[in-house]
Amino acid sequence: xxxxxxxxxxxxxxxxxxxxxxxxxxxxxxxxxxxxxxxxxxxxxxxxxxxxxxxxxxxxxxxxxxxxxxxxxxxxxxxxxxxxxxxxxxxxxxxxxxxxxxxxxxxxxxxxxxxxxxxxxxxxxxxxxxxxxxxxxxxxxxxxxxxxxxxxxxxxxxxxxxxxxxxxxxxxxxxxxxxxxxxxxxxxxxxxxxxxxxxxxxxxxxxxxxxxxxxxxxxxxxxxxxxxxxxxxxxxxxxxxxxxxxxxxxxxxxxxxxxxxxxxxxxxxxxxxxxxxxxxxxxxxxxxxxxxxxxxxxxxxxxxxxxxxxxxxxxxxxxxxxxxxxxxxxxxxxxxxxxxxxxxxxxxxxxxxxxxxxxxxxxxxxxxxxxxxxxxxxxxxxxxxxxxxxxxxxxxxxxxxxxxxx
Length: 406
Prior knowledge:
Blueprint (H helix, E strand, L loop, with lengths): L6 H4 L10 H6 L1 H23 L4 E2 L3 E3 L2 E6 L8 E7 L7 E10 L3 H25 L9 H4 L12 H4 L9 H27 L9 E2 L1 E7 L2 E7 L3 E7 L5 E5 L9 H9 L3 E4 L7 E5 L2 E6 L5 E2 L13 E6 L4 E7 L1 H4 L4 H10 L5 H16 L8 E7 L9 E3 L14
Helix pairs in contact: 4-7, 10-11
Keywords: Hydrolase, Magnesium, Manganese, Metal-binding, Protein phosphatase
Family: Belongs to the PP2C family.
GO biological process, one term: regulation of intracellular signal transduction
């Protein structure tokens, strides 16, 4: 249930880079100037983001979606969320995401990814759509270098093995382009975190489950153990849950193999045998309970990756809504319970009703455990997403690799 060990234990990681005191003094003034410059830029960026119509990141709702997050009992709320209607200035497109931070600065990492990842995805998507072949390289000055470190990101040819679609070559190319943009945006985002001057991501990171819905196409990029679940109707018109993403835990066979090949270790603690964690080769730290994440650079040489798993679904009239949520929800409620709760609640308060139900379940199932942070986005598929009417409070049949978890 915990993403990683305490900040105190994480800080003891022996692989943490040490700075030279002499060079630190020599560069102190320039570093401070750069930090002030970066801080000013990020403040201006935040103000610009806050003013974008149709972009919701606080508790609230619109015609298309409902959002809600609540702090648990473990400290500051490290969850973040976003709904961005008319994403990329496209009237039929909406982006949604939830992000579950962990580690000493996890709350900062989650919010940074919430704010920056959609911008990178949109920039890459627009650039590829505008390029002659749809697959050309993009500007490193605008997006950051993509070639400075080796990566197992799939090539264009690998991406063409994506499920064949039945709606024509142009449609397939559109989905392929969006998928490739997802993969590259996640890579650029992780590199930006590594170089960020004000957020220490060495032992801190975040999950991300992010979807883009364009018309009837639904594409999801996922790292970590947050989850996307679809509420849909079966042939008997009964509401059922379909899991759209895989919880990328370290003990999944393919994840475990990669981590071990990179000399990372995977095992569970005696007091929580059901939670597999990733550890450094020669140190029982940091104990990360997922195989993929943004940040957590202490583990990036030992099998942890930020490459998203991409899943696609062509929506039909039977599909009613998608729920994105952090593991504070899934640790205590099944997929079917979540779908039933959302379906029975008023749309405007569906996310809040789900969070409150999860908190009650936490207190019943784990009376002596600290309730985890919870964040939920409910996207309703039959709504008119072109509407910009939003309410925000300032309070804090094709699926790829579905996981069996009813």
